[in-house]
Design brief:
The protein is α/β, with parallel strands linked by helices. Helices cover about 40% and strands about 20% of the residues. It has 2 domains: about 170 residues, HUPs (Rossmann fold, 3-Layer(aba) Sandwich), CATH 3.40.50; about 100 residues, Pantoate-beta-alanine ligase, C-terminal domain (Pantoate--beta-alanine Ligase, Chain: A,domain 2), CATH 3.30.1300.10. The protein contains 11 helices and 9 strands. A 6-stranded parallel sheet has the order 1-4-3-2-5-6, sandwiched between helices. Strands 7-8-9 form a 3-stranded antiparallel sheet, with helices on one face. It is globular, with a radius of gyration of 19 Å.
Length: about 280
């Protein structure tokens, strides 16, 4: 596996692959890789001739600088994991390489980027679109792989791809969970043992709500999930929205959408750590 740190070297390496007619898969990451990331990489390796994994902690998508400062950084371990998964290129640039000058581009895809995370993290999805659009332009992948844990992010990126005319396939991949149900996340490493012990209660409530929803309204289901999680000392629901899986707009009745998803963000612990998850109804 090659470890590349500059855009020029990345494009040089990929041009020779393309000259040989090879397909390219891209897995964008912010590092601190885990088994969830590994599942994306392995799928890309299975479906493409060449797999590029970017490792870049993108500052423009953090509206909370404290969150950025404490985000885990594990480059050596990340590269070892990628090697074991069969990745061909790890692209690990510096901030200066990606942003030699401030990126002043503004992306707006309402309502997709204006609700839930977009409403609570101003500028977050604009930063996501900045870095992902750059990666798409440099790598020119045939397919790009994203974990469904960041459900809203995939919806926003789909809108950006259509808007900018990128010729690639977005491949959403299922959430990978720990044995106790907690969605794998780089932020999980920041949890104390006590916090890690209560974090699975989030998915436990979401799963239970699937049966609850069969005989209760959307509003009652939202209240059920929030009250169940908030009853756990150390957990605090920021929001739980039940939405149309395509538009991401809130629904009032189950029949309002053909496909329905519940998206949740919960603060865990005293610091606290912000955990996201979702469930399909």
């Amino acid at each position: 596996m090659k470890i590349i740190t500059t855009i020029k070297d990345l494009q040089l390496a990929l041009s020779s692959e393309r000259n040989n007619g090879h397909s390219v898969g891209l897995v964008p990451t912010m590092g601190a890789l885990h088994a969830g990331h590994a599942s994306l990489v392995k799928r890309s390796v299975a479906e493409n001739d060449v797999t590029v994994v970017s490792i870049f902690l993108n500052p423009t998508q953090f509206n909370d600088q404290n969150d950025l400062a404490r985000y885990p950084r594990t480059l050596d371990a990340d590269c070892a994991l990628l090697q074991s998964c069969g990745a061909d290129i790890a692209f690990a640039p510096s901030v200066e390489e990606i942003y030699p000058e401030p990126d002043t581009r503004h992306f707006s895809y309402p309502p997709t980027d204006a609700v839930m995370e977009g409403a609570r993290r101003p500028g977050h999805f604009n930063g996501v679109c900045q870095i992902v659009s750059k990666l798409f332009a440099w790598v020119e992948p045939d397919r790009a792989y994203f974990g469904e844990k960041d459900y809203q992010q995939i919806a926003v990126i789909r809108r950006m791809v259509a808007d900018l005319g990128f010729k690639l396939q977005i491949v959403p991949c299922p959430v990978v969970r720990e044995a106790d149900g907690l969605a794998m996340s780089s932020r999980n490493t920041l949890l104390s043992p006590d916090e890690r012990a209560i974090a699975p209660r989030i998915y436990e409530a979401l799963k239970a709500s699937q049966d609850f929803a069969k005989s209760h309204s959307v509003t009652a289901t939202i209240q059920y999930v929030c009250s169940r999680i908030n009853a756990v000392k150390g957990l605090d629901v920021e929001y739980f929205s039940i939405v149309d899986a395509d538009s991401l707009l809130d629904i009032r009745n189950w029949e309002d959408a053909q496909s329905v998803v519940g998206c949740i963000t919960v603060y865990c612990g005293a610091k606290p750590i912000r955990l996201i998850d979702h469930i399909h109804y």
